[in-house]
């Protein structure tokens, strides 16, 4: 008999209508009720951890979730976590890094339509999540629209379609078809050390999308705000302008002030490579960190986690350029 913990945090899946629109209201027991008959070989324990729209999910909530999972994990064979879709990719990334070497599966899921809606996708998503959590897996994953995906590779790409999430730059770990749930075990996370809760996060991190004509003085203002980390979505494979508005010199100043800067691509797929163009090589010379093929969500949460572990920019760079949970391809 597998023992599964079902943690709920709110989100669309648990929402009902109010005068001000949808608000999370269903309890974990009520959500489970909508599943009808479930596997007879699992024992499910329900727990309501939060009741939030995921737009209000922030680093403090990530820490609360991580601490509860670390506290409870020894008593369960796996955990299913329900969550709103809007910030699910950020929460999934943060939990992947904070729950180091997690030795049981944590499956995060939700829905595009509330469970109370007769056409909701929530029932199927939760059923697949409970099926996946019974597999011989370890680490953090997202389950959505009959796909199991690495938590650090998911991005929400659609606002209305049930196929809301895609696994970026790596195939899904699992798919449901007429043969049931099929897991590609080569893509799974395989911890090599003992579990450790590493939940210190730096909240002073920002994400900036580069646009033509951006004023370099923006970075001075960020420094005045005591920002410790900046993730920049650059052009293409890693282009940053230095003609007329010299962003590269400004980034050099920012790095010299002890602020860690990560640069990734605005393009959703494939990877950034700053060695290709002159603009990219200039960036590398000034100490910025390459994001390679990481998603913006993974870059942000990993930088928060790295800065929570060290204030030394060289150590932050070393941490960031280490692959922990298949979040980055370093070849």
CATH level 1 class label of the largest domain: Alpha Beta
Distance linking N and C termini: 42 Å
Number of domains: 2
Structural class: alpha/beta
Order of the strands making up the biggest sheet? 4-1-5-7-8-9-12-13
Strand composition percent: 25-35%
- Here the CATH topology of the largest domain equals Rossmann fold
Helical percent range? 25-40%
Please name the fourth-level CATH homologous superfamily of the largest domain.
L-asparaginase, N-terminal domain
The radius of gyration is: 20 Å
- Poorly predicted spans: none
Largest sheet, strands/sense/barrel: 8 strands, mixed
Number of strands: 18
Number of helices: 9
- The helix/strand order is EEEHEHEHEEHEEEEEEEEHEHEHEHH
- The CATH architecture classification of the largest domain is 3-Layer(aba) Sandwich
Shape: globular
Average the pLDDT over all residues and give the rounded result. 92
Protein name: asparaginase
Enzyme class: hydrolase
EC number: 3.5.1.1
Domain Asparaginase/glutaminase C-terminal: 205-320
What can you see in these coordinates?
The longest helix is centred in the first third of the chain and has 14 residues, at about 60-70. The model has no long low-confidence stretch (mean pLDDT about 90). The termini are far apart. The protein has two domains: about 1-195, 3-Layer(aba) Sandwich (Rossmann fold), CATH 3.40.50; about 205-320, Rossmann fold, CATH 3.40.50.40. The protein has nine helices and 18 strands. It is globular. The protein has helices spanning about 30-35, 60-70, 90-100, 120-135, 215-225, 245-255, 280-285, 295-310, 315-320; strands at about 1-10, 15-20, 20-25, 40-50, 80, 100, 105-110, 140-145, 145-150, 155, 165, 175, 180-185, 195, 205-210, 230-235, 260-265, 290. The protein has an eight-stranded mixed sheet, with helices on both faces. Strands 15-16-17-18 form a four-stranded parallel sheet, with helices on both faces. Strands 2-3 form a two-stranded antiparallel ribbon. Strand 2 and strand 3 (about 20-25) form a beta hairpin. It has about 325 residues and is α/β, with parallel strands linked by helices.
